[in-house]
Amino acid sequence: MSKKLPLIIVLGLLAVMLGVFIYIRQTYYPKYKWNADYRKSSAEPYGLKFLYNIIKDGEQKTTVIYNRALHVLDTNATGANFIAIGSGLEIDSIAAAQLYDFAAKGNRVLISTDNAPLELLKLFVPVGEHIYNYLAIPDSNVNITFSHKKRFPEKLHFHYQFYKHKSKMYWQSYRQSYFNTSLSDFGFEAISMLNDTTVNGFYVQCGDGLIVVHANPILFTNYCFITPDGLKHANNYLSFLHAKGPTYWYDDQGTPPADFAEPRKNPLKLLFSHPYLQWGWYLLLITVLLYLIFRSKREQRVIPLLPVNTNSSIEYTKAIGILYYRSKKHHFLVNELNTIFLAEIRSRYNIRTDLPQQELAEQIAQRSGVKKENVSYLLKQFKFLKNWTDADASELQDLFTHIEEFNKTRK
């Protein structure tokens, strides 16, 4: 029981921590995600479920276009609509030409994106002219006014909400001066203004049809759509479309159904489709991890205590000293002392020891703080005793005494 007690304590703590995490997540975390995803199936504040359901539940037939497949547009049809709402209409020149042909047959196109549909708009300007992207205006509150005062007389008010607070966001539009001096020359007509200073939406005649461009798709999302001003704004723009014609909904955010494209096979899709199965999977992974940590260790016998190692360097030194003493060849020991002394000088004072004796003595005296006379005497003794094979123990003892004195007085 004592061996399993730590594991039980750890599992209990993990269970408590998991419970606290779930409680905090359910109590303090927001219920909705406040990021713009522009998916037709999203019921989040900045999704498009409300608008898509209104379009789909109308009398017209609704066809969803996935993966930028604009070739499914029936360019021979009339009285139809095309709606694209999202971060951008990322199409090439071929797809732009198909959309242009679709509108020219008398159909209506509504494009509301954060980035201007430049590939499409370039088809309305002469070669060499340029159409720029939108201008971003940071603000939390904006108002929308419509150019046709008799048709749309009201000023509509909007703000950007992020969780529980109003926040700044970048509202897209064209400068009124740029629109009036450049785009209007190519047949572009303003529909609505942002803060009475910039153009928020406009249309351009395309053959027998119409192309409507709107710069802030967030105004069509669920959060704005359920407000009175948001409903009026959406109705005003939807009034430019055919009331009962078939509608093509451009979806660059969602996933095609099974009959449209081959779905990806994922064995974990069922587990992550429900929160309880998802948490069960996480608990299984945590349990396996704990088992690997606490039970996968190799069990073995207790390692017996070994006697403490003793330091035999002192005994070794004594033995070497006795050998030198009995051999009576003291100049060998002087050589060893000289080698150790010079190595200490090189490492401590960073001095070259191959200098002439007088110069070496001066540098050692300066760096160590020992009198030059003492250093010179010590170096002379080393030189003398190394070459004197008949040196006795008294000379060796005198040399050792001067080395000890040098070590005591040096810096």
Instruction: State the helical fraction.
Output: 40-55%
Mean pLDDT: 82
Measured distance between first and last alpha carbons: 63 Å
Low-confidence stretches: 257-263
Strand content: 15-25%
> Based on DSSP secondary structure assignment, what is the total number of beta strands?
13
- Provide a count of the helices: 13
Shape: elongated
Radius of gyration based on Cα positions: 45 Å
Largest sheet: 11 strands, mixed
Helix-strand pattern, N to C? Answer: HHEEHEHEEEEEEHEEEHHEHHHHHH
Structural class by helix and strand composition: alpha/beta
Walk me through what this model shows.
With 411 residues, the chain is an alpha/beta fold. The strands form 2 sheets. Strands 1, 2, 3, 4, 5, 6, 9, 10, 11, 12 and 13 form an 11-stranded mixed beta sheet that branches. A two-stranded antiparallel sheet has the order 7-8. β11 and β12 form a beta hairpin. 41% of the residues lie in helices and 17% in strands. It has 13 helices and 13 strands. It has helices spanning 5-28, 49-56, 93-104, 118-121, 176-181, 222-225, 228-238, 275-294, 313-327, 330-349, 357-368, 372-387, 393-409, and strands at residues 62-66, 81-86, 108-113, 135-139, 141-146, 156-159, 161-162, 165-166, 169-175, 188-194, 198-206, 209-214, 247-251.
List keywords for this structure.
about 400 residues; alpha/beta; 11-stranded mixed β-sheet; 13 strands; about 15% strand
Write the layout of secondary structure elements.
Layout (H helix, E strand, L loop, with lengths): L4 H24 L20 H8 L5 E5 L14 E6 L6 H12 L3 E6 L4 H4 L13 E5 L1 E6 L9 E4 L1 E2 L2 E2 L2 E7 H6 L6 E7 L3 E9 L2 E6 L7 H4 L2 H11 L8 E5 L23 H20 L18 H15 L2 H20 L7 H12 L3 H16 L5 H17 L2
Helix pairs in contact: 10-12, 10-13, 11-12, 12-13
